[in-house]
Amino acid sequence: MNLRIESAAIDSLMVRLFDQIDEANMPWLMAAAERLRQAFGAQLIDLVPSYTTLLLHYDLHALSEADAIALIQRSLSNLQPLANEAGTLHAIPVWYHQSVGPELTTIAQRAGLSPEQVIEQHCSRDYPVFTLGFAPGFAYMGLVDEALASARLATPRQRVPKGSVGIAERQTAIYPLTSPGGWNLIGRCPLTLFSAERGSLLQPGDRVRFVSIDHAEFIRLGGDDTAMEANA
Hints:
Shape: elongated
Distance between the termini: 43 Å
Oligomer: single chain
């Protein structure tokens, strides 16, 4: 960890802890977030964790930038990482099938695996949630096995159905809402991951374990099995 504090706006600071995306960053980032929330208290307006940084938005009427920097430095001295189990572990059901995951076979062929082996590998580890972005509740997770790493589509789709599970490079994610997108789709989740009333089910520091389910279970859980084309 290499602490650097950068000005991001008149009332915001970027707290940079690392330079590279790594699953091992998350316990440190979550520990830093916890300390900063405690230290700033009511003077904290918002705190946004990401892969290697935390964006801290503070009350400019209560603190000067110099005061805020000094408070960050004091708060993060002798920082120790939280336990990896600090976040909530979510078991997320996924129906992996070519009709809703048109790149499932493509990834398998490129990796020299069967579709069943791709599914097994995707379900074989817990993925930390690095950050939320792109769309409300869109959780960036990683890292998938290198064999499954896949570049984003050259031409993004205009419409990716809600619940679609995808891979981009070594990250994986679930589209919480129907939206455009360019990730490689391998399946679909029947759960509602975001609502205006509840907010996002997944939060930075949480962990996700994907669980393969069959079509009947997918439908029972409320999933939409409307098929999509690879070039849709």
